[in-house]
Amino acid sequence: MTAVEATRVTKTFGAVTAVDAASFAIPEGAITGLLGRNGAGKTTLMNLITGQDFATSGTLRVFGERPVENPRVLSRVCFIKESQSYPDSYRGRHVLAMAPHFFPHYDAALADRLVADFDVPLSRPVKKMSRGQRSALGAIVGIASRAELTLLDEPYAGLDAVARHVFYDRLLEDYAEHPRTVVLSTHLIDEAADLLERVIVIHGGRIVIDEEAEDLRGTASTVVGRHADVEAFVAGRDVMSRERVGGIASATVAGLSAHDKARAAESGLEVTAVSLQQLIVRRTGGDPHDARTHTTEEASS
Amino acid sequence: MTALAHERPAALSSPGRRIGNVMRMHVANPWPAVLLPWLILFAIHAMMLAIWAIISHYAGPDLDADAFRYSGGISWIVFYLMSIAIQATNATFRFALGFSATRRDYYLGTLAFFLITAAMFSTGIGVLALVERATDGWGMGGSLYAPAYLYDRSFGEIVFHFFTLIALFAVIGLLIGAMYVRWRATGLYAFFGALSLVLLGLTWWLLDAGWGPVGRFFTETPLVGILAWTLPVTVVLAVLGWVALRRAPARG
User: Fold this and answer.
1) What is the gyration radius of the CA atoms in chain A, in angstroms?
2) Which of residues 74-133 of A touch B (CB under 8 A)?
3) Is residue B8 in some structural domain?
4) Which of A27, A73, A291, B55 gives the lowest tally of CB atoms within 10 Å of its CB?
């Protein structure tokens, strides 16, 4: 069963194409990562899936139906976005008081526990909360709603590392007990990588990767060893990147079979799987920030 | 995985319940729309009493009987609720959609909320007007709740007067709010630009030839008749508000 099915979905804003003929399917009962750089079209895509915005062309089906203005679909959906706006007069407790009326499976007891975990000041006006506190409030509603399709758009912007891990732990715990379909958009890919069962990468509005996380992880490996050995091994292969420091070199190559890996090990090379983050950075045309870190590392070592 | 949907109870609640939930959203914090106006009203009331007392003290027996009949201490409530309606659409629309409400449920719930608010304020003002009469204008011959042309009207007429006007201006507020969420500032510039042109044309026409029939309408139609004419206008504006909102995106 698929929760979301998109066929050539396009959304333009004037001259800008935010989502460009995106076709993909999100399976039911899994955690799917919607990954991509800032401005890649993640939020626009989630706005379209939840009927908050209107597609320019293409068709979208959520649980088999059009989501736009469809209460049958929307009552099964919870979409928490970083930019969620709250009425000016609302305090934290007003937000939580409204949630059970809009999310039929909402668990108030779970929300109370999460409030304690995240230490959210419920009597503070939402307007006066810090970015992290507002994110935590959204994350609490998102997890406690237990909606059949839960979309979380950058749910932990402004949260520190400890609070982010509380988020991952609580989400996984509750997901294990109450399976549902989760779509998580983030650019902290390495942190969230273990959660993800499926990965959709959007770049410049186009879907560039749509694969099982496990398959994706196996698609590239890094071999490290003496320069000559590395060069001999990678000759004729699809090399995605190369680095060299003195006599030691490393190369990232696509599609190594178990046999290839054994051969590499025999010739004294160390083979490691490429992290999801590195893989995606390479597939989405590289990230200037990431490239800079690499060169400084090379220079210092 | 395929059994997921069957493990859960039916999630969809009735349209009435969904619309009720949107109304609830407007009063989760009842302070700005329900409590604060009454507080301001009572503060104005206290000030009016003080001013009337000062004037009667110095004017003494020379004071005209209708001296305190034309106070304007109540009309602000119509505009206050209009501004609440403008803000409500901007802030609660995106919140409601973020909480998986449809635009239709949101608009009907919001409309219902403002009609109930109009009924509540108009009835409250009507009751206070009765108290005002029973106490001989708070002991000083003042008319705060039923001033000027409402002075000798019945309870029903006073309530109808405030209900129709609050409803009309709240719906104008909703329309402005809906145009803002749909077309942002550009839409409002275009709208108010066009509105000024229309009003200018109307003034021209009134001064030139039209004053006769229009003047006759306002002087010859009874008050209730004039107020009743706001109802179709309110309905038309409410429909226009929906036309603007039904394709409005809920972007951040």
Assistant:
1) 22
2) 74-91, 94, 97-99, 101-105
3) no
4) A291
- DSSP, collapsed to helix, strand or coil, labels residue B97 as helix
Residues B87-130 pLDDT 10s: 888 889 999 999 999 999 999 999 999 999 999 999 999 999 99
CB pairs under 8 A between A and B: 116
pLDDT (tens digit per residue) in B161-178: 999 999 999 999 999 999
ipTM exceeds 0.85: yes
Question: Could you tell me if residue B10 is inside a domain?
Answer: no
CB neighbour list of residue A136: distance below 8 Å, 6 or more residues apart? A118, A119, A120, A159, A163
Q: A40: how many CB neighbours lie within 10 A of its CB?
A: 23
- Can you give the residue range of the structural domain that contains B39? 15-245
Q: Has residue B165 been placed in a domain?
A: yes
Query: What's the CA gap between A65 and A75, in Å, rounded?
Result: 13
- With a CB cutoff of 8 Å and minimum separation 6, the contacts of B243 are none
d(CA B47, CA B53): 10
In Å, how far is B197's CA from the nearest CA of chain A?
Answer: 29
Rounded distance between C-alpha atoms, residue B161 and residue A59, angstroms: 50
Give the whole-angstrom CA distance, residue B91 versus residue A86: 6
Per the structure, the count of domains in chain B is 1
